[in-house]
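Supplementary Note 2. Why include the ligand at all?

Several targets in our set were suspected to adopt different conformations when bound, so apo predictions alone were not considered sufficient. For every target with a known small-molecule partner we therefore ran a joint prediction. The input for thymidine-5'-diphosphate is given below.
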Amino acid sequence: MKPVYIDFQEHGDWRGQLVALEENKNIPFAVKRVYFMYDTKEGVVRGKHAHRQLQQILFCVAGACTISLDDGKEKIAVRLEQPYRGLLIGPGIWREMYDFTPGAVLMVLASEYYDESDYIRDYDVFLDSIGEEK
Ligand code: TYD
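The joint prediction is reproduced in token form.
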């Protein structure tokens, strides 16, 4: 499994950097929801779920954090630390987020409104959902 990154154009000049996100243009879906995590405490592991339908792009717009991705066959971990780099995560991927630096902000663009029924929060159910044996 390889991470799917989208590196967005930086509009930089002497004042600093700016990145623009546009649904169905440089974002490959219509954005129904944006949420972000901040003030994440040391040692915390967030996520620990998969989605049935949802597509998301994760950005660490400040600081850094690590995202593990597990498709039921293979698990990889990537460090998100560039504000212009999006990590695209589709359905059927168990994800965990951890090792947040102090002040890190993880921003997520999502293709659907919040819907708890789209979540798979039990790892065994996740494995069953992709037809894998534990
Ligand atoms: P949770 O799923 O535990 O977050 P994470 O994936 O980072 O571990 O969500 C924390 C709380 O926020 C939970 O009560 C559900 C709520 N929530 C919303 O209301 N809307 C949202 O879009 C999200 C992602 C979470």
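The helical segments are 123-129. The radius of gyration is 15 Å. Comparable summaries for the other entries are listed in the accompanying table.
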